[in-house]
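tool_call: predict_structure(chain=1)
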Amino acid sequence: MNGLRRKAAAGALAILLGACTTAMPSAPGPTSAASPVDGVIVAIDASGLSDVRGFTLRLVDGSTIAFRLGQLENPTQFPPGHLKEHQATSVAVRVYFTVGPEGPVVYRLEDAPSASPAAT
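tool_result:
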């Protein structure tokens, strides 16, 4: 009977600890990053060059952010289909976004500034 109580107590403790860890606040996710962010395109949600719905960006720290494409303020300077070229070449992009109920929504895309060599 004593062994049965120990097993029951251990099971109750495991459930209690599991409930405590899920109730604790989680660390801020990648969407807590401030706009704009620079990174490399790792995935694109599109059915063609003219129908890009979203993309995933990998930041310098290795974290990723999944973006939805909103109404761009500069679609002629940076057409959404140009993201495919950036994905293929791993050239970084700069993404301006707002965070809405469904997550981060892009309103402007640019080529990320390249790092300049250190002055000698």
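agent: Strands lie at 37-46, 52-58, 64-69, 93-100, 103-111. Proceeding to next step.
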